Amino acid sequence: MFRRAVNLYQPQQQQLFTLLSQEYDNGPNSCRIATTHFNTLFRPGETVAFSPHGIAIGTDKWIDYTHCAIWHPPVISITREELNTVCWRSWQQLINSEIRYSNSLFKYRGDNLFHQQLATLLQQGRQAIITSIKNNLDPTPAMRSLIGLGIGLTPSGDDWLCGFSMIFFLPGHPGEKYRPFLIDALASGKPKTTLLSAITLEHHLQHRYREHVGEFITTLLSNNRQAIKPAIQKIKEIGSSSGCDMLCGIADACALTAEIGEHYVRQDSD
């Protein structure tokens, strides 16, 4: 439970259902409620019962689905034209400049020895994934090395993989052929990470994104320079460092996509 979000566990589905305050954007497996915080609404130990019409919590709370407007995650894919025309390198440079002094462990510059070691391992893992893909090798071991690596409810390694998959595994992207490798890596590496983080990564692998993430991808693919910085800012605000870790993965996916796009252009001109 957080001040503006509450995660409810669904044991049969092995999923989390999240109640969100009205300040948050929509997301998969969630319901936004017209309240600013949950601090005084819930008590430890209250029972939760799901039904087709709503959720009963404790003995005095009922959330009625019949009064909710349904939100569907955006369906996003990439075309061959977008692959060749999106300014991938510019987006990579812009994103990296926006998170240069962020609290992402991928950008860590402090003197905490534990965080320094984590940052080193994170950098090694991301580089191993990029190198494997560039050389058409199996990236599964490198992907598995990032799962659960970091601190917090969604470790930095998982957040990087979420950001990377947002771009590189889009339907229609040549990199989508590597999506099964991450699915296998998550299946074997799932015990190393948190339930919330594993579920978030699974949603991204199914192309199910929260509202601000979907808006960001659409803005990036449309080369909308006026809207990209506000879209980046919304991603940065996800969690304490999760958004910045995701942006590291997005920047790497943009750089790798630029190389793939150039390769395709050369192929077309042969």
Automatic annotation (TrEMBL):
InterPro entries (UniProt xref): AllH-like
A Pfam family hit: AllH
Name under which the protein is recorded: DUF2877 domain-containing protein
